[in-house]
Design a protein that fits this description.
α1 crosses α2 and α2 crosses α3. The protein is 46% helix and 11% strand. α7 links the parallel β7 and β8. The chain contains 8 helices and 8 strands. With 256 residues, the chain is an alpha/beta fold. A 6-stranded parallel beta sheet has the order 1-8-7-2-3-4, sandwiched between helices. The N terminus is likely disordered. It comes from Streptomyces aureus.
Length: 256
Amino acid sequence: MERRRFAAGIAAAAAAPALLGAAPAPSHGDDRLRKAMRAALGDELDDRATARAVEPHIHDIGFDWHPPTAPLGRIDFLVAYGFGNRPPAGGGDPTKVMYEPGPVNEELADTVARVRAHRDVPVYAQWEIARFLKSKYRMTDVTSVEPVVAPDGTLTYLSTDGVAAQVVEARKKLPEGIGTAGVIGFRDHVKRCVQTTNDRGMKAYAPAGFEMPGTYDPESGQAWTRRRDLYLVHDMTAQWTVLREKLIARASSGNS
């Protein structure tokens, strides 16, 4: 019976529409789901204590896709993370020829422009987005985070963490300090973008009141960004990997 209630809770959570750009208010339904998750996992493991320890991680990674938000007045700069791309229009060796930014990154650039219209702050944008900010909007004060080019011309595209690392190094050099980041990212990616930005030593939030793009590109050059069911597995895997590293580091240092 408890597992049937757990399954019903999962279905209800999956069917509930996401209110993007704002953290969800706690609900009785969410409380019931979490209680059912703990009970079902405790039965399965025959270990209530471990179920209580593990359930928050399962809930956070599998059932909560909302980033923390902050009003624009608290944001000192924007970081825009790319999502997907398109294969090189002219063909050629894809390891040495730049991919095309693609339509999703244009939508992300549009989102950056909407935010910048309300608060004129510096922008650090992954190159796919920066291309549109400069060509479509003629936007100034934009730092493009580019792929790494090896001496033989081979391109290495940066991960989400790689982009965050570049941004924090640039911000450390400023006399006013790092400041607080407003994060722009694809709807199903933005929570992890905020987490990654925070993990790199920057206070980070999604700008409150702005909806993030959420339409997938079936022609993306990255297979995992072509459809939602596949991307969610990809993103959850990335979140689990980071959590695993944090928990192991904590245990290795003697902290519980």
